[in-house]
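Sequence design from tokenized structure. All designs in this work follow the same two-part layout: the structure record, then the generated sequence. An example of the structure record is given first.
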């Protein structure tokens, strides 16, 4: 019987890019946050051998370039099992959208194969496979509010943020992450202030701001947005902390329509608005569900795909996965 799992999206609440490392990756710091939008991934394990990907969306590759395929292959090898794995993806999240759709599908595949084969990988093997396949996969082994370090693959669970209302807008633009990093390198080259020391300082500043901000999140109980003043203050503190996404500096000049979406959020009263990852998703956090829904409707009327949803805590993430 196929195992059916919800594969949730993430956003980045700020992302600081540091130096380019000898392995070609960039040092970074970010706060990942899972949100309630999802794809559905169905995994079946039968007798035989091979990996098959089924997806109606032609933009999703069905060969070994698909992150699900790459994870499945490594999971079988690590478990020393032979099976015919069929992965069916119902795509609702945008492709190349900066909200980790492909990465989340791949982690759902890992968990789906474990369930289908009635076995479990050791935690260190789960993490190794996830980080081998991509920098954005390990966060989905944690869920909720997660601090990302290294090239993004070093993940640390943080106290969960309240279930704030959020609007996710995904203009139909595919932003290539490697290209965005290349443009960041060009910016660094042309900007005298962004020396290696300058970049390390900015990374430290981000870590400090993130720590100070997240240190005020209650560590017990499930935080609710109805937590009232506290939730509202936290949202204001996020803005005061000066947490930003560095990709905006290279992606907005290239795609001004994404900056325009951020401006719509600000005009409509979002407490915080930002690009997610390298885009093209732009999101806005709102104090009320009504304001989020009104803004999503407005964007849709302007021809920009947008949805109102909420942040998803770690507990909800694992409970609702399936
Ligand atoms: O790890 P992932 O497959 O998501 O990375 C895609 C590409 O993005 C990498 O090949 C690299 O060019 C770039 N990247 C980077 N620094 C990071 C993460 C990704 O330069 N921290």
């Amino acid at each position: 019987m196929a195992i059916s799992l919800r594969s949730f999206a993430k956003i980045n609440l700020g992302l600081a890019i540091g130096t380019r490392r000898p392995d070609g990756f960039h040092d970074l710091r970010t706060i990942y946050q899972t949100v309630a939008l999802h794809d559905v991934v169905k995994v079946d394990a039968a007798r035989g051998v091979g990996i098959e990907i089924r997806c109606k969306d032609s933009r999703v590759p069905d060969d070994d370039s698909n992150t699900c395929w790459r994870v499945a292959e490594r999971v079988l090898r690590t478990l020393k099992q032979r099976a015919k794995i069929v992965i069916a993806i119902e795509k609702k999240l945008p492709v190349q959208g900066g909200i980790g759709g492909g990465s989340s599908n791949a982690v759902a595949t890992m968990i789906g194969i474990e369930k289908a084969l009635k076995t479990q990988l050791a935690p260190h093997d789960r993490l190794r496979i996830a980080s081998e396949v991509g920098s954005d996969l390990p966060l989905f082994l944690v869920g909720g509010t997660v601090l990302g370090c290294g090239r993004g693959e070093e993940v640390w669970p943080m106290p969960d943020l309240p279930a704030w209302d959020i609007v996710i807008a995904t203009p139909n633009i595919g932003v290539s992450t490697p290209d965005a990093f290349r443009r960041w390198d060009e910016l660094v080259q042309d900007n005298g202030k962004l020396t290696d020391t300058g970049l390390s300082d900015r990374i430290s500043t981000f870590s400090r701001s993130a720590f100070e901000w997240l240190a005020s999140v209650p560590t017990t109980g499930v935080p609710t947005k109805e937590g009232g003043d506290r939730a509202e203050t936290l949202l204001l503190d996020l803005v005061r902390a000066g947490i930003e996404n560095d990709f905006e500096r290279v992606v907005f000049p290239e795609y001004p329509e994404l900056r325009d979406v951020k401006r719509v959020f600000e005009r409509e009263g979002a407490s915080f608005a930002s690009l997610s990852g390298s885009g093209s998703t732009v999101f806005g956090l709102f104090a009320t569900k009504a304001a989020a829904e009104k803004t999503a409707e407005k964007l849709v009327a302007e021809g920009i795909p947008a949805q109102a949803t909420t942040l998803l805590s770690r507990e909800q993430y694992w409970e609702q996965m399936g």
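The longest strand covers residues 26-46. We note this feature because it recurs in several other targets discussed in the main text.
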